[in-house]
Design a protein that fits this description.
mainly alpha; 2 strands
Length: 120
């Protein structure tokens, strides 16, 4: 029983270092990039300082994200405009087809007109 307890205690003690090691292996490229930017580090108080390059990268990333968001909004507005124009054109076509003199078979509008009416 003492051997099992001893093994369990060792497993508890080694669990978090093993997880840290696995994470470091999995993200080794990111850690290398981060360590290259490291300017200074302190011990027990866990104070870490990175070079100004980090600030420049962060600002560049923020600008890129803002540009992407702006472009996405513009594209969404264009799509909305096209959709609205097509909806208005479909409604106008439906209204024109329902004017007096339009061919109606069996008391119902033509099949394509029924579809247009459901879309608008």
């Amino acid at each position: 029983m003492n051997v099992a307890r001893l093994v369990l205690d060792y497993m508890k003690a080694l669990a978090w270092p093993a997880i840290v090691l696995i994470v470091m292996i999995f993200f080794r490229d990111e850690f290398r990039k981060l360590l290259r930017r490291l300017k200074s580090a302190k011990g027990g108080g866990a104070s870490v300082e990175f070079s100004e390059e980090v600030q420049a990268v962060a600002e560049e990333a923020r600008a890129a994200v803002e540009a992407e968001v702006r472009d996405a909004r513009e594209r969404a507005e264009e799509v909305r405009s096209v959709f609205e124009a097509s909806r208005q054109a479909a409604r106008a076509a439906a209204d024109a087809a329902l004017e007096p003199g339009t061919l109606i078979e069996n008391g119902a509008p033509p099949k394509g007109l029924q579809i247009i009416n459901t879309l608008t």
